Amino acid sequence: MKPVAEHCLRNQAPIAEALHPYLEAGGRWLELGSGTGQHGVFIAGREPQVQWQLSDVAEAHAGLLAWQSDAGLPNLPPPWVLDVTRDEPPPRDFDGVFTANTLHFVGGPVVDSLLCCAAGALVESGWFAAYGPFNREGQYTSAGNAALDGWLRGRDPDSGLRDEAEVIGWAADHHLAFVTAQDMPANNRLLIFTKKG
């Protein structure tokens, strides 16, 4: 049975639309922390010119495989088991890397490992896109985001909403240069970076 995340059903169309300008040229994209796999299936179905590679830790693999197999899309190969804290980055031949709702769910060392993996997988001038809730100038952007942050820190004090400026600086340490940020529904943002050096 395929796992279903209701928030994916709500936000997959806006995410796909926001990513389209970076996907329309085609190429290979890697999704880190694919979760259920719903985003990847939805995007691959809308962007047949892009090969979309799902990946996540071993515990998520059965769900990813169920979504990928059921979709039967030629541009959606079988998912990879990939733990950014232990595994080497994939070969540096991806035109883009995407991650959704991951940076606030994990602790700082995992965020650093994810950024390192993203940078290591990208070709020169490749795109890195990170979607999720972020604080701005140290402030919550909604009461819902504040409540989410409290819940996250209650389960793991090292997790929680990151400030946009912090993420931009962190990414720069891995040669990911900030390009732009786009407002998304439900007080989320899409941060776009490009690989330099």
TrEMBL record:
Gene3D superfamilies: Vaccinia Virus protein VP39 (3.40.50.150). Signal peptide: none annotated. It comes from the Bacteria. InterPro entries: DUF938, SAM-dependent_MTases_sf. This is DUF938 domain-containing protein.
